[in-house]
Design brief:
Elements: H1 2-29, E1 32-33, E2 45-46, H2 49-64, H3 71-90, H4 95-112, H5 135-153, H6 159-177, H7 181-198, H8 215-234, H9 249-262, H10 275-278, H11 283-296, H12 300-316, H13 328-358
Antiparallel strand pairs: 1-2
Helix pairs in contact: 1-2, 1-7, 2-3, 2-7, 2-8, 3-4, 3-8, 4-5, 5-8, 5-9, 6-7, 6-8, 6-9, 6-11, 9-11, 11-12
Length: about 350
Amino acid sequence: MFDFFWVPLFSLLTTALIVLLLRPVAKAGGLVDRPNSRKRHLGEVPLVGGIAVTLAVWAASMLFMRTQGYYVALLGGLTLLALVGVIDDLKGMSPVAKLAAQLLAAILMTSWGGIYLSSLGDLFGRREIELANWGIPLTLFAAVAVINAMNMCDGLDGLAGGLAAIVFGWFAYLAGELGNGAAQRMCIIFCGAILGFLIFNIRNPLRGKSRIFLGDAGSLMLGFSIVWFAVLLSQVQYNEHGRIPPVVDALGAGLRTDRSIHSRGPPGPEGQEPAFRRSDTFASRAAAVWYGTGCYCLGHSGQQRAAGLLRRFRLESRIVRADAFHPLPAARAAAPDDHASRVAFHSHRTSDACADQRA
């Protein structure tokens, strides 16, 4: 009861309080996202979601974790990336500088925290694949890749946050199955903090006019935290009762959907733009992606259901001509010809009947 209610509730309320405190500060300091040719939201939106989540995770972990252990390296790495994200949102940073900061955070994970891949498990049904000296380089590569994948997902209201909430919820369940109570509590802390952010990000009655965005601070920090727990729970040396396969499937689903959403589809009738560019009703689509991602994590049957949902989502994310993917328009196109032939046939029979009567 304590772990699954009071801990996430504290994280949620802490995030919400920090958001309310930081919104006016961000507007005064210019930490806002402004509309441009690539961004169609209205007005200036504060980029304080990532800062609020980071501070809430710090507060909750200091309060509810008896000993931090190697999680000190986790907090250090996510704080570093959050600071880099704030600087990038304020002034901009070169890609090389951002990549260097991501690599430094990954080095903190492997060297300070001692969290790295030592085995890929029995991937091919032959024997366990031991990485030996390749463990740390592969972990560094995976960390940078997941961090950037999460950053790329942050292009739709609730998408990155929703994906992260599902991933951490799934990790919390797996950590409990493996008997790793510390990892489970940390994942629950992340879930509560992210839900506190989503209250102000997704359209809902509680948000009002207090809309915020995650910002690079949040997307980079969440990507780093996800890869941390993915490695932690997949290696037997960090868990008492086994391990899980080393894979983060949720990000694959999210990244594919995000790429589909942001690609410009063919123009619709009368030169209309794709639906996601013209409409601001993002919450339902983000929720569909979350559900699909959750199904994707549940095994083969769930993956099939998620694949069908995401295919539907991709089709509904664009306004395209129906004949691009559905055979009905062809039948409809043929229908007028059939109707015309029937009319001509009946006209011919009527004219013949009239000729017979005159005769």
